[in-house]
Amino acid sequence: MKILGGEHRGRALRAPKGHATRPMLAMVRESMFQIAGPWLDGGRVLDLFSGSGSLGLEALSRGAASVRFFEISREARETLEQNIALLGGGERCTVVAGDAVEPGLWGPGPFDLVLLDPPFPMIRATDGRTKVLAALEALAAGPLEEEGLIVLHVPRGALTPANIPADLAHTVREHGDQAVWYLQRR
Description:
Elements (H helix, E strand, L loop, with lengths): L25 H11 L7 E5 L5 H8 L4 E6 L2 H14 L5 E5 L13 E6 L3 H5 L1 H16 L2 E12 L12 E8 L2 E8 L1
Parallel strand pairs: 1-2, 1-4, 2-3, 4-5
Antiparallel strand pairs: 5-7, 6-7
């Protein structure tokens, strides 16, 4: 797994052992960051379900001013902290050990870009999907910058437009068995 663009393009990142975290495919990440590019220049990023940090660190490499990472797994968090150190991003990064769908932990914001990449088994389960959708509502009502963007990565077909909170406009890009939803306040 490597940083695809920006200041740290080509730098390798570590990944946690095992299959508990699933890195996003490079082509999906590249497409996502091409669309999210305008929110990166000096932007504040919230990376929920961070895993190894590949999304937030890609944002940092492409010009984000700061990234606040959320990861509940101790092993993944240790790998994330190693990756931050590898890129020398410590002063621009905050790592929070906590549940990514707990709004009280996110901080005050505002965030220009929110990267939301829940584990696929979570989004496939009804209770997990409900928590993620509630988090979307809370993000739109709270720490998302007025003109901010939420990027949600899920299995293709896991969500329909009817699932998305009514106050969020959306665009969907499908990549094989994956879908990336781009959400903004109406």
